[in-house]
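Long-time lurker, first post.

We've been arguing in lab meeting about whether flavin-adenine dinucleotide would sit comfortably in this protein at all. Half the group thinks yes, half thinks no, and nobody has a model to point at. So I'm putting the question to the forum: if I give you the sequence and the SMILES, can you give me back a predicted structure of the complex? Inputs are below. Any interpretation is welcome too.
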Amino acid sequence: MKRTGVFVCHCGINIAGTVDVKKVSEELSKHSGVVHAEDYIYACSDPGQNIIIDAIKEKKLDNVVIACCSPNLHETTFRNAAKTAGLNEFQCEIANIREQCSWVHKDMEKATDKAIKLTRSAVQRVRRNEPLEPISVPVTRRALVIGGGIAGIQSALDLANTGFEVILVEREPSIGGHMIQLSETFPTLDCSQCIMTPKMVEVSKHPKIKLMTYSEVQEISGYVGNFKVKILKKPTYVYADKCTLCDECTKVCPVAVPDEFNLGLTARRAIYIPFPQAIPATFTLDIKNCPGLLPIACGKCTDVCEPGAIDYDMKPEIVEEEVGAIIVATGYDLYEKELLTEYGYGKYPDVLDGLQFERLLSASGPTMGKVLRPSDHKEPKEVVFIQCAGSRDPELHCAYCSKICCMYTAKHAMLYKHHVPDGQAYIFYIDIRSGGKDYEEFVQRAVEDDGVLYLRGKVSKVFEDKGKIKVWGVDTLAGKDIEIDADMVVLATAMRPSKGADELARKLKIAMDKDGFLAEAHPKLKPLESVTSGMFLAGAAQAPKDIPEAVAQASGAAGKAISILSQERLYHAPTVAEVNVNLCTGCGMCVQVCPYDSLSLKDGKVEVNEVLCEGCGTCSATCLRAAIQVKNMTPLQVNEMIKAALGG
Ligand SMILES: Cc1cc2nc3c(=O)[nH]c(=O)nc-3n(C[C@H](O)[C@H](O)[C@H](O)COP(=O)(O)OP(=O)(O)OC[C@H]3O[C@@H](n4cnc5c(N)ncnc54)[C@H](O)[C@@H]3O)c2cc1C
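Top reply:
Settle the argument with this. Predicted structure of the protein with flavin-adenine dinucleotide, as tokens:
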């Protein structure tokens, strides 16, 4: 019989507070085949690991069970310890008596009984474990970054500056994301474009970055270290290398549609450059709005384009790339107008969202930095800012806090006062959330230096009345109803995941949280990783974030990607599914249920892609003939574990 060692961890009082660890150790020492059992206060500590290593050597143990916390936390720690002592690392198993026992029970007697059963169960399993070797695969040492906002740009630059090739895919005609639309940025009030454009230029000139704008990821396959990506390059109908930016085409284009960059505050032509500092600096022909295509009814732009840069016959292109790691930085969008009608949003031209107000404040904006009402171009003298428009409103809108609105609203009110010193800024708020370096001081400046009036309470109604926008609300601190005749209302609308994030998440097989943001693998310990190995998250795609946070996360994600790309080969756990071809009938039921797409049919039998397989066992549970099973979690092992857990 194999010689098993059992080590029961107290985890301070995390386990020992609810489980009688000494009793667990005593009971396990009576279990057949267990030749060594002991408890220790912190098994994961250095002395704790040494106890395990020494016992393996001295007692000539064949395998060990550590009764402790979740294998997610310390399976690798203890397997490494077993390896140091000369065992195959897969001769070590964890009995999770913390998350699955001590943390969820109060009654010590019952919790102890359960801990004994869980540990016995693990002993029964480890006894039949095969020695296994990790699966090794070569790494494609290039990365893909999806989204060219500040987060994607930062990740791409960090990767490229470390020497790795990067493909940066942006779906719009230019990189820059929302940051390039901003005027000045809190808390330092430095000009957003001044700090963003050098980075955009660096991206476009970097020899290691392949920039693909007006492009979208269409298909993805493969696994960590070896992804295959198909990217759709949409036709711009303009050859960037021929276009001289003379602008003659826009002068003759008869079309006027709302300009996305200025959020509809101005119009653009069907052929356009998104903004003067766009990267790449070239025109795009917006096919949806161009009357010149199919059949050619206009063609004026081609007539005036001397270098012949416009080509109505340009076709979409599919570009295939291979990469080892992926960073998703697809950012955010603001809450849709049609969902916030209670504030007159989308109904009254002088009710704006925060990004529209940024464009009014911006020196490169539609009013050259003058704060003017869109309706009549007059300077607004009373401006009401409404925070939490769509956020923290579980009944009607989003339950979550959009986190950055308190700060940018303080900035908006402050900048408005800098532009219109004799004007009055009111801010309706629920609470002020100004956690961040120098953030609280920034809000105080708005109040004390710029005379911004904060009103604690919610707005009940916004409506037009005799050329004014009436705002009804309540000041809960003064206990008074408030009525303001405003000239302009600015809504701090909720931040939402960018449009299409759900579709992309499905393609990449990464999870989303309940609000549709991309979900991190662990909220505390893996905030940069997605649940899919080799795919990382950066910026506001994961949750509402300001620029410093987006940049920090982007650099972190790049670091994580580099930790993969810097290796020649990657190692994957060998506890994967294996097929008994003699029993397999090729019914394909397991192929259908595999959540990792790791199974396929070949010549009437199922084949396992071992690198994609995560050893979840769904296939094994589905197979009617027990033809597929997971190594070291075979039906026989499961059966014995259940018997042990039931006390048999
Ligand atoms: C009104 C307002 C004012 C603000 N002011 C400040 C401030 O003063 N200071 C501050 O620190 N922060 C401020 N912010 C926050 C700031 O805008 C964000 O922190 C920052 O833009 C987040 O960057 P990002 O790259 O994560 O996302 P984004 O800027 O949203 O960029 C995402 C990019 O990904 C692209 N994309 C999306 N989906 C795809 C896809 N499927 N394929 C390819 N590309 C895709 C988008 O086109 C976009 O270019 C403000 C926000 C608002 C709304």
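For your lab meeting: The radius of gyration is 31 Å. Residues 146-152, 169-172, 177-179, 182, 185-186, 216, 329-332, 334, 354-355, 358, 404, 408, 411, 498, 500, 504, 539-541, 545-548, 550 surround flavin-adenine dinucleotide (CB under 6 Å). Whichever side wins, do check it experimentally.
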